[in-house]
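Usage

Read records sequentially. Each one opens with the input sequence:
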Amino acid sequence: MAVGFLGVFGIFALLIPFLFFILHIAICVWGFRDARRRGRSSEYALLVVLGLLFFPVVGIIVYLLIRDY
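and closes with the structure output:
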């Protein structure tokens, strides 16, 4: 039984958002660990995670700019 074009497209249509979700969670975990490794408090690391969770693209840019201060 062959999978039609729509079936293959459907698989990719489900797989791509799942991969972006996994990437989003990985970025949040990385942000938390990076903030803690740099000696920041748990509260600061939690704020980083919340920023990355709710504003993923802008959050990562802002965090990368302010993390050395």
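Summary fields computed downstream for this record:
- The radius of gyration is 17 Å.
- The chain has three helices and no strands.
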